[in-house]
What we know:
By secondary structure, this protein is α+β, with helices and mostly antiparallel strands. The chain has helices spanning 11-24, 33-36, 41-50, 99-112, 129-138; strands at 2-5, 54-61, 64-73, 82-90, 119-125, 141-152, 155-165. A 7-stranded mixed beta sheet has the order 1-2-3-4-5-7-6, sandwiched between helices. It is globular. The two termini are 26 Å apart.
Amino acid sequence: MKISQLKPDDAENYLSLRLEALQNSPLAFASSYEEEKDDSLEKYRVRFAAAKNSFTYGAFEGIQLMGVTTLVREQKMKLKHRANIVAMYVKPQYRGNGIGKALLDKAIWKAKNMEEIEQLYLTVVTSNEPAKKLYFSMGFEVFAEEKRALKIDDTYYDEEWRVMIL
């Protein structure tokens, strides 16, 4: 397995995995398949080429993209000491093999090596026990719970807000 930052040439693999993630794990994302199904490859090519404040990492076995996560640096002057981990997903058949941990390790390493970043944030649906266990093991601490954070059809889901002080 190799963890590397995605490049414009990875846009097609990323978009395919992203749409799979939105369909298979709708509780893991604020966005939905319906909102992103018509996104263009160009959107991701441009994002991966710019990579100034957003860094997407992929876990590869050969050319197979098994999982991803994105580190996003805050832009506002008063928030520049913060970054967020978003869009974390590992294909179900590869879970339990350390891929999520490896992706987080890479994003945390990047954050620690960026000027001004002092803390990392992420959110996780309270019912996602495997993700919560991983984030706890990596040092992310719960600091708040948002009730009814997501609404899918007529069902609400709570989210934990977590932070890691670097």
